[in-house]
Automatic annotation (TrEMBL):
This is Aldehyde dehydrogenase. The keyword Lipid biosynthesis does not apply. The active site is at E246. Residues 1-20 are annotated as: Disordered. GO terms for molecular function: oxidoreductase activity, acting on the aldehyde or oxo group of donors, NAD or NADP as acceptor. The keyword Oxidoreductase applies. Keywords: Oxidoreductase. It comes from the Bacteria. Residues 20-475 form the Aldehyde dehydrogenase domain. InterPro entries: Ald_DH/histidinol_DH, Ald_DH_C, Ald_DH_CS_CYS, Ald_DH_CS_GLU, Ald_DH_N, Aldehyde_DH_dom. PROSITE patterns: ALDEHYDE_DEHYDR_CYS (PS00070), ALDEHYDE_DEHYDR_GLU (PS00687). Belongs to the aldehyde dehydrogenase family. It comes from Catellatospora bangladeshensis.
Length: 497
């Protein structure tokens, strides 16, 4: 059966009937990058059963041995980094340097988990006048990981690493829009581990639903959009399987009156919105600026964008922004910009274009800064997930927090100020899981800082110690003092004193 393009002119999802998932290059839509086998529900079932059978012996392996195996698994991926990065760039449209960075960061994360997990997961025991209390962290069993296309390696390893370290086994279903590189990474990792600890299954909603609803799956870790999340949570609920949901954001950037608008922070701010063509959950998605600094800001921002933003083929030298992932994504983002302009806004094109790239060959969208857009325009109220960002002005700070907190999403935010105390005080009032200070997006990430949303941006955390304990349940063994040898005893059925 010939593969069907997922993002080209004949866009489809998976080839029906257990065929291939094909991925075409979003920068050159007729170029087939590769295929992976699409999993039928029967194949999903077989792999979940195998993962379930492997889980108990894995959980019984001491935590430091599991950690050593994970470190060795990370080492097997490392030599392949250059070829993996190129494959990721061709299937996702992300620029080569970002792809290298993502895979390198994912391996660093895996090693960090291996170092950290044995201590974080260790039993705790107290023995005192109240009795003896043992608390241990028990793995769930088989974890299903459902991941999006925009950072398939790190977003999969954020689940795979902690879940395996804690004694779970994992079946991951990547997005059909970027299945190729993660498939290779999973194979490399799995090859360095005992059999059946880790598998990948491919396909769209059918494969995802078969995995999430499988009775042997004990926990579902999902990263993606709100619509899919509701289906995933509902399917998981049919088996009362717990979920962790990492969803979209509409991150506000609060530039205070004393924010530094010099070139270096401005370059950081531009990339905070336009890295991966704006298709990042924690991208800077709304810019709030004091009205008095409008002209100064526009000059500085447009200059910085000319320096750091170059639209073109992700594999070309000097390109910092590739296409968006699909024709649908391009149409959606262009629609948001057109709507903003129709409502009286202005769209200022940003950056440069690589002269060697034929922009008509792929899903390229001109990056824009939107000015004069009403606050109720969809580009302000919704996650744009693409290369455009609205600039919104404020006169005084009285309603700034309310405007920043408006809406249902609460993933990230940032406060930019010369006064760190003031920035931290304001940050505490923001409804966001992660507030950056004087930066935003990937330059502000930290392995030790738990990441996740509030409100409709999801629940549960990745990164940090919480990102490890997320894959365990605390179980207790308790001998109350009253009933231990020599204890005072108590009346039957009495509450403890
Ligand atoms: P998506 O929701 O379309 O797909 C995510 C995954 O869910 C894919 O693997 C998809 O095949 C699968 N899926 C879809 N429907 C399903 C169903 N009914 N049952 C089981 N699986 C199903 O997301 P996307 O377009 O790949 O990614 C973009 C979204 O992800 C954005 O909203 C972005 O903000 C969000 N995101 C969030 C984070 C975070 O950490 N919070 C990180 C990256 C992306």
């Amino acid at each position: 059966m010939s593969p069907v393009p997922l993002s080209g002119p004949e866009s489809g999802e998976t080839v029906p009937g257990g065929g291939q998932v094909a991925r075409y290059n979003p920068a050159r839509v007729y170029e087939l990058v590769g295929t992976v086998p699409a999993a039928s529900p029967e194949q999903v079932d077989r792999l979940v059963q195998a993962a379930d059978a492997a889980q108990r012996p894995w959980a019984a392996t001491p935590a430091h041995e599991r950690a050593a195996l994970l470190r060795a698994a990370a080492d097997t991926v490392e030599p392949h980094l250059p070829t993996l990065a190129e494959l990721l760039a061709r299937e996702s449209g992300k620029v080569l340097a970002d792809c290298r960075g993502e895979i390198g960061f994912a391996l660093t994360f895996l090693r960090w988990v291996a170092d950290r997990a044995p201590g974080v997961l260790a039993d705790t025991e107290v023995d005192d006048t109240a009795g003896r209390l043992l608390q241990r962290r028990r793995p769930y069993g088989v974890v299903a990981a459902i991941t999006p296309w925009n950072a398939p390696i790190i977003l999969s390893l954020l689940k795979i690493g902690p879940a395996l370290a804690a004694g779970n086994t994992v079946v991951v279903k990547p997005s059909p829009l970027a299945p190729l590189t993660i498939d290779r990474v999973v194979r490399l990792l799995a090859g360095a581990l005992p059999p059946d600890l880790l598998h990948a299954v491919h396909g769209g909603t059918e494969a995802g639903a078969a995995l999430v609803g499988h009775p042997l799956v004990r926990k579902v870790a999902f990263t993606g959009g709100d619509r899919a999340a509701r289906h995933v949570a509902a399917t998981a609920a049919t088996q009362t399987t717990p979920t962790v949901l990492e969803l979209g954001g509409n991150d506000p950037v609060l530039l205070l009156g004393d924010a530094d608008l010099s070139p270096e922070p401005m370059r950081r701010l531009v990339m905070a919105s336009f890295a991966t063509s704006g298709q990042v959950c924690m991208a800077a998605k709304r810019l709030y600026l004091p009205e008095s600094r409008r002209e100064e800001f526009l000059d500085a921002y447009l200059d910085a964008a000319r320096e750091v933003l170059c639209l073109g083929d992700p594999l070309a030298d000097g390109v910092s922004m590739g296409p968006v992932v699909s024709a649908e994504a391009a149409a959606r983002v262009n629609g948001l910009v057109e709507n903003a302009v129709a409502r009286g806004g202005g769209a200022l094109p940003l950056g440069r274009v690589d002269p060697g790239t034929d922009l008509r060959a792929g899903h390229f969208v001109t990056p824009t800064l939107l000015v004069g857009v009403p606050e109720d325009a969809p580009v302000v109220t919704e996650e744009q997930f693409g290369p455009t960002v609205p600039l919104l002005l404020y006169r005084d700070e009285s309603d700034l927090v309310a405007r920043a907190n408006a809406g249902e999403l609460g993933l990230g935010a940032s406060v930019w100020s010369a006064d760190e105390e003031r920035a931290f005080a304001l940050a505490r009032r923001l409804e966001a899981g992660f507030v950056f200070v004087n930066t935003h997006n990937r330059t502000g990430m930290s392995l030790r800082a738990p990441f996740g949303g509030v409100k409709r941006s999801g629940y549960g955390r990745e990164y940090g110690d919480e990102g490890i304990t997320e894959y365990t349940q605390t179980c207790v063994v308790h001998a109350p003092a009253a009933f231990r040898s020599g204890g005072a005893g108590a009346a039957a059925n009495a509450y403890p004193a």
